[in-house]
Specification:
The complex is a heterodimer of chains A (173) and B (173). Chain A has 173 residues and is an alpha+beta fold. Chain A is built from eight helices and six strands; from the N terminus they run E-E-H-H-E-E-E-H-H-H-E-H-H-H. Chain A has three domains: 87 residues, no CATH class; 45 residues, no CATH class; 31 residues, no CATH class. With 173 residues, chain B is of the alpha/beta class. Classes of the chains: A alpha+beta (173), B alpha/beta (173). Chains A and B meet through strand 2, helix 1, helix 5 and strand 6 of A and helix 1, strand 1, helix 2, strand 5 and helix 3 of B.
């Protein structure tokens, strides 16, 4: 006796990459199992049906196209209720309760970093315009040159400790 | 700035302060998260702070980087807490296993019901923690520069190790 799993390309990974996961909620995964009993094969489908069939290439061909067609039909019916204007530009990704400083995707990302904004807003700042959105002032100096006491950077040390010889002695210590 | 795991700072101490800082940041009224590259490199940094002045300064210090959507965790994360009674500065370098991104649109035939395990690669990440009543931008920048240098060194070491392993395999064959 041997068991075989049916091969399908409608996997979760493929469904996610084609954008169907967002449309259908959960992706379709067709789980089939076959087990041979002599010439006959026990066939258990995802939907709970149990049948004995003699597998031939023709039957495999029919099963494959039946599932392919049902998958495409489900995808088409899921898109049926969406207006053309939205289908044209892509899937809806805006949430009505979001506002600057309260973006769900960014909050989840911060959560992954170990910080969950529980009380107020969390502003993602990648450009000076984002500072205005966050209610902050523009930087006075851009780019900002920061000189810190790194012992590998002798010039910075000179700047910091150039005032007297005592400072050099302090640095040597 | 001491590195976690060195004589001056143990991992336990760093973890304790880091967790307390994250908790306090989570309870802050506002979080400002400037992002960008460490100047002169392509190492991405995310700063999570409750200080509006430091956010402005650090945005001016960091080089502007492409904004990734959806947002994801970056190699260097800096947690800066302003208004704390205690004073602390340190950074830690950790190695994590991150899944290799699948760039293929259609992965091809996959066995249904069996999730293929994604391939992982070792990657170093850094966390910088600065806690003070009024954190100094120089201290933060020192932590970021030290972290970037450590990550670059790790990457070089990893590449050399990988090359040596490949060479050993070729020699065996």
């Amino acid at each position: 006796m041997s068991s075989v799993r049916f091969l399908t390309r409608y996997s979760r990974q493929w469904a996610a990459s084609s954008g169907t996961r967002r449309l259908l909620g959960q992706p379709h995964t067709y789980q089939l199992a076959f087990r041979s009993f002599g010439k006959n094969w026990l066939y258990v489908s995802f939907f709970g049906g149990i049948t004995f069939v003699q597998l031939t290439p023709y039957i495999l061909f029919c099963v494959f196209f039946a599932f392919k067609n049902s998958y495409l039909a489900a995808e088409a019916s899921a898109q049926a209720g969406i207006p053309d204007s939205i289908k044209r530009v892509g899937t809806p990704e805006a949430f009505p309760n979001q506002y600057p400083g309260h973006i769900y995707a960014f909050n989840w990302c911060l959560n992954g970093d170990g910080v969950t904004p529980l009380r107020g807003s969390a502003f993602r700042i990648t450009k000076p315009l984002d500072l205005k959105v966050a209610g902050l002032d523009a930087p006075k100096q851009n780019p900002l040159q920061v000189c810190f006491p790194s012992f590998s950077d002798f010039h910075c040390v000179i700047k910091l400790f150039h005032s007297s010889i005592d400072s050099f002695l302090f640095f040597d210590e | 700035m001491p590195e976690a795991g060195s004589e001056k700072l143990s991992f336990d101490q760093f973890d304790e302060v880091s967790q307390r800082t994250r908790d306090l940041l989570s309870l802050s009224d506002h979080l400002y998260c400037p992002e960008g590259h460490v100047p002169g490199t392509r190492t991405s940094v995310r700063v999570i702070t409750n200080s509006s002045t430091l956010a402005t300064d650090l945005l001016a210090y960091l080089e502007r980087a492409p904004r990734k959507e959806p947002p994801e965790s970056l190699p260097i994360t800096a947690y800066i807490l302003e208004g704390a009674e205690e004073s602390f500065a340190g950074y830690a370098i950790e190695e994590i296993e991150s899944p290799i991104a699948d760039e293929e649109e259609d992965p091809g035939w996959i066995v249904a019901g069996e999730e293929t395990e994604p391939e992982y690669e070792a990657k170093s990440v850094a966390a910088v923690v600065v806690v003070a009543n009024k954190p100094d931008v120089g201290v933060v920048v020192a932590g970021l520069e030290a972290s970037q240098k450590a990550l670059a060194d790790d990457e070089v070491e990893r590449e050399a190790k990988k090359a040596a392993e490949e060479k050993a395999k070729e020699d065996k064959e």
